[in-house]
Amino acid sequence: MSHTTVTGGAAPGGTTRAATRARRPARALPWARGAAGVVVFLLLAEAAGRLGVISRSALPLTSAVLARAVLLAGNGRFLADLGATVEAWAAGMAITVAAGVPLGLLLGALPGVRVATRAIVEFLRPIPSVALILLVSLLLGPGLRMSATLIVYGAIWPVLYNTIAGIDDVDPVAKETHRAFGFSRLDTIRMVSLPSAAPFIATGIRLASAVAIILDIATGYVTGPINGPGIGAYIAQQSSGTSDLTVILAATFWAGILGLALDLLLTGAQRRLLRWHHTRLGETG
Amino acid sequence: MLEVTNLTRAFGHGAAAHTAIEAVSLSVAHGELVSIVGPSGCGKSTLLRCIAGLIAPTGGRVVLRGVPVHDVPDGLAVVLQDYGRSLYPWLTVRDNVALPLRRTLRGRAARRTAADASLAAVALAGVGDKYPWQLSGGMQQRVAIARALACDPALLLMDEPFGSVDAQTREDLEDLVLRVRRERDITILLVTHDIDESVYVGDRVIVLTPGPGRVRADLPVRLPESRDQIITKELPDFVRLRTEVSRLVRSRDTRAVS
Amino acid sequence: MSWLRISWAWRWAVLVAGIGGWQLWTSRAGSSFFPRPSAIVTRMYHLWFSGPAAHVFLTADATGNLLPSLGRVLAGLAIATAIGAPLGIALGRSPVVTAYLNPLLQFARALPVVTMAPVFIVLFKIGTQMEIATIVFGTLWPILLNTIDGAATVDPVQLETARAFRMSAGQRLAWVIIPAALPKAFAGFRLSLSLSLILMVFSELVGSSSGIGYEMSNASNAFDMTFLWSTIVLLGILGYLLNELLAGAERHLLAWHTGKGRG
């Protein structure tokens, strides 16, 4: 199963290399450069709109989108939608981790079971969970239960596969040493395999989180406001009839910020919990 | 052949500045095998990289065959300590050896033949189709040597080439270097931290002081041309010289002796 | 070898047993939400695979809906790779430029692409262009960011060796940087592959007048559960085949990488 391991999602190492090159002022340099990049991008986009390079009838001006985004931040209804998306994300991710990690440990520790279930898993995994939206909405009816179900179906695979990959990667010497001290197999899994697989699991959870946000918004978008509040429902409503792209892009902006914030949250948690092991995480961010 | 004059290399600026080598001068004659030995952190690798043109010195100059070195010069090849990282894992052993030949040799078949000949010269005929990571450490380092020799260099630079192999393999590789040197018209500069090795393979041993590296001593090795791991190392001359080098390497004194 | 064969047999035996259990359970439950697998397979056959031999047994529905959907996935991935891979190599080797772009790239990656669908609908109208735009925009970032990471983290000793042997810039790119970046680029591509299926179905649900997703939407309105299930099974098989294809390509191109990991 090793070829299906997902280790990606890493940030470019460029910033760190730039930082080591020039010693002292370097710490602030990537930030300054990043900020400059953002400002230049916004100015260019604004100029393209004002000069007619991008037709204003096709895409609204950047300044208009940002102004609208500021307004949205004070809009109670939109905030409720944002909150509902976070809630569905949290519920879905909690179940995903609670189910995915033990399942991954089980399949990782028992190669026989893994081999036997492999064909089923390999068929279930690629089914895109958006394809299940219509079926699940007929089965469960709209609401958080449905969103969470779809999130779990889509997000569990990276957690499951990375847990298995983490178990595969455990140093056999460490395991044997522990077993030699007379610990049981279960203790060895708990005390050696799980901690040393933790960085892999953390990466899997971050990948799962990105999928979870996409699925929650897609679900809301496809089913519409029937499914209750959420960013997806908000965008579905705004885009029915003549769609006002300014609002949609402003909402998209906040959705992106939400995605970044949740990823930063997970990265922060990962760094705190796995301080002892940051080298194997590869990049962060 | 090689003239190094007042070579200095510093890293960083201001308070974080650190001088790796300072005012190093040495010369190597055509056909010589010179060992450079020193305690760890004495800037041996920095010196070698400056001579190879891989990094620019902050002071002094390197002249190879009458031409000042600015970039990597012609007729030079290097063998680095990290064979596991300097060989490309995505290429077979033969392709690893053949890759640098792309610059000089036209035609796949010609490069292939040259690579196989070079592999045979280090007693590795027949492993060309394997990947480096399928070979033992000693064999991988032989591949790195074969790759360097395939370019037919006038000057071969070796940076701690046998630092990561076991003792027995190390001795075999030392004898391989001596054999290569006998059979070819080649000048070799070998950086090592192993005192016995520096004396055993060298015509001369240059001792560097602990960082910043300066030349502490430049000692001729007066041992018979043909060397043997057992017999040579029992000779009183060998023992005397290795003791002297050892004393120089260990001492805190950084003044040059002559 | 024999052990491999036994595990292979096991794997499929468990799959067949699972399907058998599913058949038994659905027959007994008799729920309209859960059609029997036999009914699903029959439906799939009639829908898509009972065509004339000249069309490789594909029906008109299959050539009219399945193939376009598949084509959009492949076109989207191809465009995303054509942009992301070269750009990723270039940015990976230029840390300063990457430092300027990093926040924008991270934001683009974090952007849930589905929110952009209405924008693409307005820009490209309903149909293939809009779907491909959605797939490209969604799959570009994993490929781009992973390739940047792969190219930025090439072992300095490998690059120094290339310089010491005076390889030209082109040779260094072709023989050192690209092969070294390939494993990470592939990891990104694998993420993008599963994303592309999600986005294909999604964009067809909301912004298309043909394709698998569009048909699902119709079937759902008509409460045609067997059809919904048939599409889901078909997507599973399709995804399985695409994954196998990718795994095969990886085995071929990255044999050194997996082998090295094992050795």
Structure description:
The complex is a heterotrimer of chains A (285), B (258) and C (263). By secondary structure, chain A is mainly α. Chain A has helices at 14-21, 29-50, 62-73, 76-109, 111-124, 133-140, 144-169, 172-180, 185-223, 231-239, 245-273. In chain A, helix 3 crosses helix 11 (245-273), helix 4 (76-109) packs antiparallel against helix 5 (111-124) and helix 4 packs across helix 10 (231-239). The two termini of chain A are 27 Å apart. In chain B, the strands form 2 sheets. A 6-stranded mixed β-sheet of chain B has the order 6-7-8-3-9-10, with helices on both faces. In chain B, helix 7 crosses helix 9 (236-250). The mean pLDDT of chain B is 88. Chain B is of the alpha/beta class. In chain B, strand 7 (155-159), helix 6 and strand 8 (187-192) form a beta-alpha-beta unit. The two termini of chain C are 19 Å apart. Chain C has one domain (68-262): MetI-like (MetI-like fold). By secondary structure, chain C is mainly alpha-helical. Chain C has helices at 2-29, 37-48, 60-92, 95-110, 117-124, 128-152, 156-164, 169-207, 212-221, 225-253, 255-262. Chain C contains 11 helices and no strands. Chain C is globular, with a radius of gyration of 23 Å. The longest helix of chain C is centred in the last third of the chain and has 39 residues, at 169-207. Classes of the chains: A mainly alpha (285), B alpha/beta (258), C mainly alpha (263).
Q: Which SSEs are present, and which pair or pack?
A:
The complex is a heterotrimer of chains A (285), B (258) and C (263).
Chain A: H1 14-21, H2 29-50, H3 62-73, H4 76-109, H5 111-124, H6 133-140, H7 144-169, H8 172-180, H9 185-223, H10 231-239, H11 245-273
Helix pairs in contact in A: 3-11, 4-5, 4-7, 4-9, 4-10, 6-7, 7-9, 8-9, 9-10, 9-11, 10-11
Chain B: E1 2-11, E2 18-28, E3 33-37, H1 44-51, E4 59-64, E5 67-68, E6 76-79, H2 83-86, H3 93-98, H4 108-121, H5 137-150, E7 155-159, H6 167-183, E8 187-192, H7 195-201, E9 204-208, E10 215-220, H8 231-234, H9 236-250
Parallel strand pairs in B: 3-8, 3-9, 6-7, 7-8
Antiparallel strand pairs in B: 1-2, 1-4, 4-5, 9-10
Chain C: H1 2-29, H2 37-48, H3 60-92, H4 95-110, H5 117-124, H6 128-152, H7 156-164, H8 169-207, H9 212-221, H10 225-253, H11 255-262
Helix pairs in contact in C: 2-10, 3-6, 3-8, 4-6, 5-6, 6-8, 8-9, 8-10, 9-10
